[in-house]
């Protein structure tokens, strides 16, 4: 049948109008759906924020009622424990006789009070500590634990008390927390008096290093001091604290194996490794974390030049799919196939690098274990698919909540809000008691333990709250210490820092226009490599942090193990039938 040209044009015109109309309707419906989704997400975040706030106050108020000014709360018996000398002290050796606490949980709660918005309680706590806290006590303490909890808590709270928000009036606050922090830092310096510069793990706050003190320490113990002690030096103008921590870090890095791996324990006098098996969990975890965060906080290339090869070594020798096992630092061969709850910080660190795909992959596996048991057991045997027979406790650890917060900040994927909700519900169901929140002694039976760790308030509640309300982060970039205490990225502290971390006038990232605002490290994706453009400067290519070169420069290979990770897509390269590494697509 023949159709006239006029009719044909008419039909085409009608079809165009119909298509346009359908597109308009589709877009309208899409916008309505998105608007409803955004509305539901906002409502969910408000609801969950309030739920986490109630968790924090249930823990905090019970501590203040039943344990303060002692160190930590025993929520089942509604009593207290003076636990500062017990932290890291698995054998409970050399416990003090007359030590009566240092208000540890209150110090740990200071920055959380600010983030939640309770400046009144923050001021009350600061004034009490100013008048009552003293470190001139005969107590043997773990340097690492005291550094991340007490020194970090005091330094961070001092900064929050003196920032531009005027939380505390100048006549009320006169640097009392900084004075306490400096007193504590001076006591720390005794630990570094060793032939290697590596600090003793244990010191007495009153008398320094005791006679016949053990010379064994962990990689975390001597490699995770630079943020707190560096910040103390920047605030006081006394370079000794940062210099001591940096000397120890440099010495530790010089002891790495040819594979760029470090061990777990070492001798501070001889500088010899005692435990060669290593991983990203207990004893090593925050060593990696502090290298990257020190690079962000203080700038300069030295920290990056240590971190980057260390990160690549972890990806090469520890990673197995989404999991990370332990390996011998000398050979790279797997030693223990296990997941530990402390490893759950790793996806959060990867987000800071921009290695979001790898972070998401590992995070989902950690969360799958959480869902399987209701909480995350301390140790899970990957090769057997079961909990460790003795280490099956859950002490209210924050690491999974921390990584969930970072991933949501990077992706804004509402699935992470659901993960947080699941965690909040589990904590309320299994760990909440009348007198606070109790650790789980046995995850298999959910048997409670009479202990509410200070980091529950410093980290677990804080990261869950920030997941649903990140208004604290709007006007300032922060680096969170391994204990969750925020330290602001200040230009005055930086030696030479990539402009990306401090820019205030960035208008274009990957060609997308944004309102003028600060770009935080967690939102700056470095992997895959992207062209970064800032106002008044030329774009420059950022090398992908997750790039692992092929074994041979010719890219020839025998097996997939000879191939690395692609420098732009961060995907694993494989060996083709022709014997070359590449990203090969399977065509069906």
TrEMBL record:
Gene3D superfamilies named in the record: 1.50.10.10
GO cellular component, one term: endoplasmic reticulum quality control compartment
UniProt entry tagged with the keyword Ribonucleoprotein: no
Localization, UniProt: Endoplasmic reticulum
Cofactor(s) the protein needs: Ca(2+)
Pfam families: Glyco_hydro_47
Enzyme Commission code: 3.2.1.-
Keywords: Calcium, Endoplasmic reticulum, Glycoprotein, Glycosidase, Hydrolase, Metal-binding
One example GO MF annotation: calcium ion binding
Any one GO BP annotation for this protein: carbohydrate metabolic process
Protein name: alpha-1,2-Mannosidase
Active site (UniProt): 145 (proton donor), 285, 378 (proton donor), 399
Annotated family: Belongs to the glycosyl hydrolase 47 family.
Catalytic EC class: hydrolase
